[in-house]
Structure formats: C-alpha cells, structure tokens
Amino acid sequence: MAPHSIIKDRFRENRILQSRIIIALAVMTLLLMLLLARMTYLQVYGYQHYSHLSQQNRVRLAPAPPTRGLIYDRNGVLLAENRPAFRLVVTPEQVPDLDETLKRLEGLVTLRETDLERFHESVGHSRRFQEIPLKLQLTDEEVARLAVNRHRFPGVEVKAHLMRHYPFGDLTSHLVGYVGRIDKNELRRVDAANYRGTSHFGKTGIERHYEQTLHGQAGVERLETNARGRILRSLSREAPVPGKDLYLTVDIGLQRVADEALGEEAGAVVALDPGTGEVLALVSKPTFDPNQFVNGISIDAYRALRSAPFQPLFNRVLRGQYPPGSTIKPFIALAGLETNTITPEKSVFCPGYYRLPNDNHRYRCWKRVGHGPLDLKQAIAQSCDVYFYDLAYNTGIKAINETLAPFGFGRPTGIDMPGELPGVLPSKEWKRRAKGESWYHGETVITGIGQGFFLTTPLQLAQATADLARSGTRIQPHLLDRMGTSAGTEPVAREPKTPIQIKREADWELIRDTMVEVVHGKRGTARSIAPEDYRIAGKTGTAQVFGLPKDEEEQLDEEELERKLRDHALFLAFAPAEDPQIAVAVVVEHGGSGSATAAPVTKTVIDAYLRGGNRDDS
Amino acid sequence: MILNGDDNGVAPRQMGSLQRRLHLDGVLLGALVLIAGLGLVVLYSAFGANMEAVQRQLTRLAVAFAAMLVVAQLSPQALRRWAPWLYIVGLAMLVAVVFFGVSGGGAQRWLNLGVARFQPSELMKVALPMMLAYFLADGALPPRWRRLGLSVVMIAVPAALIGQQPDLGTAVIVAASGFFVLFLAGLPWRLLIGTAIAAGPAAAVLWFYFMHDYQRQRVLTFLNPERDPLGAGYHIIQSKIAIGSGGVYGKGFLNGTQAQLEFLPERHTDFIFAVLSEEFGLVGVGVLLCLYAVVVARGAFIAARAQDTFSRLLAGSIAMTFFVYVFVNVGMVTGLLPVVGLPLPLVSYGGTFVVTMMIGFGMLMSIHTHRRLWTS
Question: Complex ipTM, two decimals?
Fold first, then answer.
C-alpha cells in the first residue's frame, strides 16, 4: 500500500469517527431532554396531584399468602399438615429496656447466639414500632412459661403462624419430601407476584413436584397507616385461594410394613399396582426426619446427615442405580424367545463355567460345581449363569437392547417426582457415546446376567415387573391419585403408554411360569418364601460390589468394611401370579444374596397387601 | 515518541502541573467528585440519617477513585496491548464460572480465587470495549462484513455467558458497550435499521416457541408493572408519588415523607433518584443531570480529541455506556422504562460496579493526558 492511501484512509476514519461522536452526542442530548421533560411533567404539572397522593399515602399493601394444600395417603391419612406454631416477637418501642428484657427472657426461653445476632441486625434496620422476630419456633413449654410471665414483658409477644409438619417423619421423607425456606433461585422459577409473602417452597419429593398445585393463589391486604407509617387497621382483603389437597396412591400402612421389613438395612422397596400404575409403597433407607428441614436445618445437623453412613438423604428408589443382576434373566429369556435363539425345551449343559469360542477366559456360574443340563424353566428357577451367558451371546447385544428397551430400561419412568435417574441399558451405540470405545463380546456375555454396564433403578425394576405381569400392557407409574379441596376431589386421569408387542402372546405366560417356579419350584432360588394360599412369581438377583472409594475404605472398621464389600441383594415379584394385584422390587444394599434377604422383605410386603392385614389407618 | 504530561513544559500553574503529573483531567474529576458528594448526601437521607452507611460508601468510593488514579497512569498504548489478553482472560473466567462458579443469591456469577470471590462479568464490562476497539482499530474503517461478523461474535459470546448466569442487566450493559464501539467505528446505517426491523418477528418466535409460561409472566410484569401491585407496580407508583410531590424546590433535606416513611422501596439502591427528586425537587434533579451531562460531554470531547482510533473508540464507548446507566435508571424510576435492576452511577449504594466504572474513567483520563506532544 502506498502511504498516500493510508493517509486518505486516516482522513476518512477521522471523518466517520467525528460524525458518529456528533450523532451520539445529539441522540444523548435528545434523550436527556426527554428525561428533563418527564421530570417537569411529574414535578410541575403533576405536583398538585402527587402532592395530594403523598399526603393521603396511608395505604400499604401487604401480601396475604395462601394456605398450603395438605397431602394425604390413598385412604385419607394425613401425611403433610399445617400446624400452628409460635414465634416470639419484640416491638422495641414498647420495651422499656431492651438489653434488660433480653437478659430476663433468656431465663424463660433458650436463645441461640444466631437468634440474637439476627435480632440485633433487624433492630438496626427496622422502625421502632415494628415487631421483630426473636425466636421462630417456641416449644410448648416455652409458650406456657411466657404466658405466665406475660405481665413482666411489655412489648414481647407470642404470635401464632402455620408451619408444615410431617406426622410420619422419616417414614415419608423420600416420598412426600419436605418444604424449606424459599430461595432466590426458586423465586425465579415461579410467578413472583404470586409468591410474595410465601416463605416456604417444596424442596424434594411430592412437595417439590406439585409445588404450584399445593401453593395456591396469593391475596392482597390493604392496610391503613398513620402519617408516621404505623398500621392502624385493615381496610380490605382480597382473600387468597388455598392450595389444593393431594391424595397419593400410597397406602401408609403398606409403607410402614415395607419400611419395617427392610429394618436397619440400606436399600429400597417399591410396590406398584400393575393394573393402574399406582405406587403403593415407596421406601428408601436409611432415611431422615423431614421436619428438621422445615425451619432451616442447622449446619451441624446437615453436615452430620451428609456424612452419615449410607447417605440417608439419597433417594434410592429414584436415584439408586444398581446392576440388575440375575433379576434381568426373565427379560433376557424373552429376548431369546423373540429372536428364536432358544426354545423353552432346549437344554444347555452347565459345567460351572462358560467359555467363548477361541477365548480362554472362564465366565463362572454362581454354582461352582455346575447345574448340569437345564431347560429354560430350570435355568430361571435355579438362576443358572451359564445358560444366560450362552443365551446372551447367541442373541446378541442389539436384540437384547431392542427387547428390553420397551420395558423402560435406560430411561426415566416419568413418575411424578423430581430427580429421577435413567440408569443404563447398554448397547454398542451407548458405549461409543459414553465411553468412546467399541463393544466386546465378553460384555454381551455378562449383560446376560445383568452385570457390566447395565444399571437400573428400583423403580424401573418395579415398572418392568408390572409390565411383565400385565402381558405388556403399560401404564405410567404415578403417585398422585386425586386432588381437590375439602369440598370434593377429582381424580387425575392417566393415559396408558404404548403396549409392548411380542411375536407370540403365549410367551408372556411362559416367562411368568418360569418365575413362579423360582418361588414355588423344588429347586427355586426363592422357595423359602413360598406362601401356601396364593402363588408368587419372582426372580432373585445379586449385584456385585467391586470396591469402595479409597477414602471411604479407610474410614471404616473391619466389620463395616466387610459389610460394605458384600453384594447387593435384589428381588422382584408380582402376585397373585394368575391375577397380579401388586408388583414389587426390592434392593437390599450389601444384603448378600437375593434369596436370603431381599425375597423375605418382598414376601412380607405382598402378604400385607393381599391379606389386608397390618393396615395402619391411624 | 511518547512524552508524559509533565515533560511538555506547558501550564505553569500549580494545580495544572499537579494534575498533569497525576494524569488527571480536572473537568472530569471535578464533575465526578461533585456527583459522588451529592450522592452521599442523598444516601444519608435514604438510610434514615444513618452515618454508618455513608461511611461505608465513602470507603468504597475512595477505593474506586484510587483505582481510577492507578489506571490513569497507564498509557493508552499499554491499554491497547493488554486488550486482547484481558478479553481472553475474561472470557475464560466466564466459561469457568459456568463449570466451577460459586452460586450466590440464586445466580452463578462468582469465581472463587482462594483469597476472594471475583465476578468476571465486571472484568468483561471493561475488557469487551477494549477488545473491540483494539480489533476494529487494527483494520480499515468502516469495518467490512467479515470484521463486522467477528465483532458481533465477540459481543454475543460474553453477553450470552453473562445472560445465562442469569444477570440480564449486566449482559445488556456489556452488549451495549460493545455495540457503541461498533457504532462509532461506522456500523452501516442500513444494518442498524435492518436489525431493528428484524427484532419484532424474532421476539414473536421466542415468545411462542421458546419461553416457559413463568418466563412469559415475568415479561408481562416487566412491561406492565401494574400486574404485580405488590412488586414492580408498587415500586413505580410510590416512586412517581415521591418524584411528583417533590415539586420544583423539593420537601427539603430529610423531609421526604415517601422516603422517610419507607413507602419508597429500594430507596438506597435502584430508586435513590426518587429520594433526590422528593427532597430536592426539580432544582436538585437539574443539578445532578447537568453534572452527568458534563461527564458525558467531557467523555465525548476526550474521544474526539484522542489521537488514535483505538483511544477514540474506547473513550467514546465508555462515555456512552455511562450515559446508558443514567438514562435507564432515571427512565425506570420515572416510569418511562420498565424496571430493570440498574443502579444510578456514583449515587446508588454499592461497591463493585462503582470501581469498574471509575476504572473506565481512569482510561478516559489516561487517553486524554498521554497525548503526543506534536499535536499540542
């Protein structure tokens, strides 16, 4: 480029810049004039009007928050209620000596350091005639003591408000969830106008999923104040619309049975009505008391919960992803029948191990000495691994995936609860996407016994069991049965899902028979739980635990370590086998074998449901 | 050759030489100090005659003016050299916020740097106009399509990252500061008008296909505050009463009933302009707006007198961005614009953004006081 053109460019650039600055200045001047015109309009023309309004400005608007809807079980047993609670408030203006009063109050109620700090901070920010909360939750005893000594404390009052309470405590924590103080992030997700004055928000479970329904519509109260801003009286009130009450599908009696059956073990129990998709019981253990979250849990208590063994805050039903182990075998068998890889009569010899062609690696059967020759029924009843290694290898991962996917494996079930995890239904495509690696034959082999990459949640297992029980008719598992007010309730309609199609309808019956054999057969792995008056179809499973994170391993003593390295026990079942009323999936973490620990839990739950005993309707 | 102000042998006056030695611009500094002073007076009233809060704010202002002084010592050439690095660092930190950011108050805006928490979006307010000025000054003006396209990407990426935190107010300010550089550099008019026309249908698509119901409700409340009489609507009603009842001469210092009786919400932050209007009337408002006008005009003058394209673009953008703060805040308090949470510069209570703003003025002073000798 010649210097000539650079100079020319420079002139041009200068011209553009100068003209643009002038345009900008002109626009800004115009906008400034606009502001001045607006100010003149308000302050000169509007002066009379606004001055009058300012003198009359005696009306304050206060939000009237709605009452939160209640939550009941299917029989109308209250699971979440609004209880009157009492808080201590102080009006500084009416207190002769604030420090002295606080000192004397400490003799009657326990005041935490944080309570006092918050109180003093509020005193600095508020007007002297406003009430300031000193303590949010008074015990009954404290309320009584304050009532007796009331005359000694002018300006100190006990005020009532409603507080969420969960009467069943830790029994419903993973089901109903809990509310807590609303935070800014949650306010951003909702219509802020409706939540002004609302202090609590559903944090987990049903409380979270149906937050909007439970919350209701806020109202407005108009308050008259004097010229100094003191509230004189309420002028009018646009009443809030209370939130709707929810009736869940869960039976709290059965919930308790399931909870007690699991005892002190960590694990999960889900029971469904296969005909309707109603969740009858949903238990995850260990658990925690949801009531401590309502008014803000202390940091120490929260830390204790977070670091407690087996993570009580973790909802295993929705978020626990376990290898299905042998419980997957009936589904693998169906894949084999669909692809004509096997016939029910075809026999396989189990020598105690399985070898792929041209490979020396031995895939062991759980029974080291081998089962000998087995047909399909016995292979499932005795849970022979070799049979299913061979079956999976011959069926291929693609066909297995295609048969299992319609049962909902690898996808969230879509239940009306937040935070559900999808699990993993392995396939070549999945592995390439998730790990960037190609698929090996050995991985198909172990998929046959529900190991390897396969992960399912207890809820998915229960759903698949229900699908099997109802010959492929599917319905959305759900927790909300009906909702409404004290005036009446309306049921919530559920659309059925696309049914599962298989080539021979008779195969449903065939698979169910093999599962009956598991419980009622002479050699069935769960024969110890067989009831006499009805028939259960079930399948045991054991999921291997390979190891623990290093830091966790170091924290545990030897006995605990031994427990934590034990396999997870699984059992899924439905009953009665001829006309399924209930489908159950149970996971007992580190329970050893499915037949020993998970099956008896399942039996207890089914018994309680079918015999109608052990109901707790209090 | 670059000469410092004290080497050019002009201005024998004591004040003038001290100013030059410190690389300060008297007019700009004077106007800023007066605004900050008036701000402290109003703040004292807005806090209900609370001296403590005023002292806290005074400390922040001191830090901010010190930051301005430091930046003024740097030469525009240094600013230019640093521009791309600051931008890259800022962008990297914004991305880091997405992955490792600390949440606070519902938004994820902060990075934990061990010693302190840092808000990368504040850095971007400074770094983006610098980067664009650097980038556009490097080529011929007005920029061609390729440069225009790249500039839009440079603006859109940080603005989107800040917008999703979510911090819409800052995202808009950052985008505006970048847009002003483009505008000054000669963004073609037909493009400007074309974009404005295309915005309508784009908004409609967004509304019908991409927004959640609660988001639509928020937009409705935003456009029509009366929908939420306890929230934004209440703010505007009370704010208008405060301003209007102030009249020409105001109700007098500490006598504003709207402010003192706490009818006026957010009175020490976003709505502080209403306190000034109520207590000092149209006269007080006129004084403050004139002072703001002096700052903006001086900024534009500095931009016009600057010796290289980078300095001009940067100085012009800083002055215009400052004006946007004033216009949007006053517009919202007087009910001309919807309520967005932008503070009134140097008057509203708060620290971080004052420091960022004064760093910008430090750059203006640097640009004005480091001019080459041969033009003077």
Answer: 0.89
